[in-house]
Amino acid sequence: MIIVPEKEIGALMTREVAFDAVEKVFASMAKKSAYNFPVIREAIGHADALYGFKSGFDKTALNLGLKSGGYWPGNAANGITNHQSTIFLFDANTGKCRAVVGGNLLTALRTAAAAAVSVAHLSRKDSKVLGIIGAGHQASFQLRAVVEQRKFEKVIAWNRSPEKLDSLRKVADEIGLPFEIVTLKELGATSDVIVTITSSFDPILENLSVKLGTHIACMGTDTKGKQEIEASLMKRANLFTDEIAQSITIGECQHAISEGSITINDIIEIGAVINGTAVGRTTDSDITLFDGTGVGLQDLAVASSVVELAIERGVANQVEF
Ligand code: NAD
Prior knowledge:
Bound molecules: nicotinamide-adenine-dinucleotide
Largest sheet: 8 strands, mixed
Strand content: 15-25%
Structural class: alpha/beta
CATH topology of the largest domain: Rossmann fold
CATH class of the largest domain: Alpha Beta
């Protein structure tokens, strides 16, 4: 069995490898050769923790396993990240444990890769202005990954607490792009691509503030009740997601679905666009919206890539198990 500890992931994994792994697994999901198992998430009644696991099997890549972890709100006070996760991979032929891989950095990289895949396949090729809503842990990963997909000339951003946007400004400076803090209305009216990455339970971005031709990657809503976009925007947009079952229950589409303003038939899995079996953007004036809910198969895909990289570079920790 191979162990790849959390501290080694940063030196092994790249955004390009994460993009490739996530794009392939979305394609495999749409072909029905990869599927996610039901997600478990429980308040364990200890340390105020939320614990769960996401698992699945990709028959094409032979990735079988699970990501286990959750949220321990008291961790930060002890210098440990509140979100904790570990990925376990199993040999699909024998069931033997193949690898244990740190899942914290990989979660951020695979989530950013999902938004980047959506931008690569759905945004206008001439997109110039990137708008980011949110400035938490995930936001800078999103900025770095998405900005690589188009020739962006400017980054604009909004966060509930504007002082937190300094972290995004630093990343934009590093990349060499102008950065501006704007109002939500300005962000909607100016952005060609918008990434929403907050943990809001109320709509933030108003439908009519979004201009025609925009691509929106909704990445923050991954739980029942969370919401970042006014549900009426769903009627104006062409809708895409990683997995329809999650999109309508825990993703951004859950609200328009429960209002009855859209149906399941209005949502297309992005893997079908990647495979060429569904149409993505049809005109420069379409609003495209990717509901990125985050699936266990993404975790397995990036963990498997990391294990391959560790073996290739001769740094894999092998243990008898
Ligand atoms: P974080 O706690 O570090 O940051 C939270 C962000 O949300 C901050 O910018 C905060 O200002 C903003 N926010 C919170 N409540 C808000 C409100 N009511 N109105 C406006 N803004 C509000 O969180 P993070 O780690 O950056 O994660 C952000 C979101 O992404 C979370 O909801 C998380 O569950 C989700 N997430 C999704 C995936 C996925 O695969 N889709 C993966 C990881 C995280």
